[in-house]
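May I ask you to review the protein record following this short note?
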Amino acid sequence: MLNSLHNLIFMPLAELEVGKHYYWHIGGLKVHGQVFLTSWFVASLLIGVAFLATRKVERIPSGLQNLMEYALEFIRDLAKNQIGEKEYRPWVPFVGTLFLFIFVSNWSGALVPWKLIHIPGSELAAPTNDINTTVALALLTSLAYFYAGFRKRGLGYFAKYIEPTPILLPINILEDFTKPLSLSFRLFGNILADELVVAVLVLLVPLFVPLPVMILGLFTSAIQALIFATLAAAYIGEAMEGHGAEEHG
């Protein structure tokens, strides 16, 4: 009886299959449907919270409005520190969207029981649990800092590839490929590893041991969102200023 109850409750949460996808066929394209479903959930949640927080703006904020103003101030400070006080304002929406989407996506993997929702041929998971999502976010970041560099410096942007010496041209070009790779694989690897560890612990020791790991996973997920947004802002600032910004995290 106890074994049956254990299997009924915990096995759906502990099963984690890597590489199986629910495909949508759109014209000649084949896309991962489960990623779109969870991404739309995260986007709808963010839009809904933003709507409720700004529906009735008060001079003395409270509740959701206070939370949203705190988040905006935090993102504004992050962008200002990485991009610079004179140039940061146009980039606050982009950096903020990256941070909030990744943050909520990561936390949804820990707090929403996606595994209990069955879809044909696959299972639901956090959007950032899929390498396609993290690569797309990293490529958007690359396009953003290329655009920022060209907009600010024009053709002089290409001068960075031969600084401080033309000998470094291949290395500087290679750096533009390693940045999105590093961003995407770091985020994907950390989120996938966290969900795998929790799934295995729920399967082996289902009652108390997974709880500290899940709490640590929430903290790690928040840090990963912060690292991604900070590096994105740093790359944008680097492209406009023309000097290197060391990657960290």
